[in-house]
Prior knowledge:
The complex is a heterodimer.
Chain A: H1 9-18, H2 27-35, H3 37-56, H4 65-111, H5 115-122, H6 125-128, H7 133-138, H8 145-166
Helix pairs in contact in A: 1-3, 2-3, 4-8
Chain B: H1 3-25, H2 28-44, H3 52-72, H4 96-107, H5 111-122, H6 127-134, H7 138-166
Amino acid sequence: MTFRTCAYEKELRQALKDGHWPAGCLPELRDHVLACSSCSDLVLVTEAFQQARKRSSEEVPQTSNLLWWRAQLQRRRTAAEQVTRPITVAQTFAWAVSVLAAVAFAISQHHHGLRWASWWSEVAPLRLFHLAPSVTHNLDWKLFLIPTIGALALVSGVLVYLVSEKS
Amino acid sequence: MDREAFAGFYQRSAPALRAYLVRVSGNSALADDLLQESYLRFLCAKQPEGGEVNFRRYLFRIATNLLRDHWRKPKHGCLEEIPDQFLIAQDVSSQVDLQAALGLAMARMRPRDRQLLWLAHAEGYSHQEIAEITGLATASIRLLLFRARRKMARLLRKHMAGDRSLT
């Protein structure tokens, strides 16, 4: 198939677009269209499509109000998701840090023969309420591990929230 | 864009967009769905600058992408499988021969060719504008349109000759 552009095509295309074809065109152009297969194709196809468009344009679709309100709802939903995303990310991160710390602690204790169970029973809750200087001196460092993990998770969550909200 | 402006824009653009979707998809119900989705996406997205001409082009681009997404879904059949009666105009007028032939010819064209032909000959878009809407290269549009138009003209003549021979 050969691809060539007729010299009259631009003029003919404009005449068809403006609705000047055929009455508003020079006889020379009309004669050319009869002889030129490319231009006669252009006329035939353009007229067919323009008629189809004109007839289809008479069918007016439904009102725009429903679409407008649906778009507003969708916008609000998207905005709400964007607002709550930092909170969700922070919560997820805090949970992940807590779980990781707990797992790390459990694994470290497992390597030492699960001494944490006996350690916990030794550190009786009552002792916490009688923190005399002599007692606190004897407390194991592990007593502070759980609150530290909790604080770490909380602070990490807050930090992630602040960072993601800013972004 | 506020509600009033959208209502006006919808009234002016919806018939043309629906005609494009109906003729290219060959399915009125699908065209109505895609029409609504096109406007929803248009309203929820950041609209282009430059006024209504650019709004329309952007809208056609959204609709073209939706059509492409629809065709890519494996559950939907190719448009070539759609019965001809869906593509033939239902009403009767003086150009019934040409319109009936157009419906039959459209059913035998590839979806991309249908899009290109409609955008070029019904909407009157330039090659550059069609390239922006379809995502194809401007250089390719020229050749693709030439081939599609030639095929369409051949099919139109064939179907119109067939109609006349029947009557």
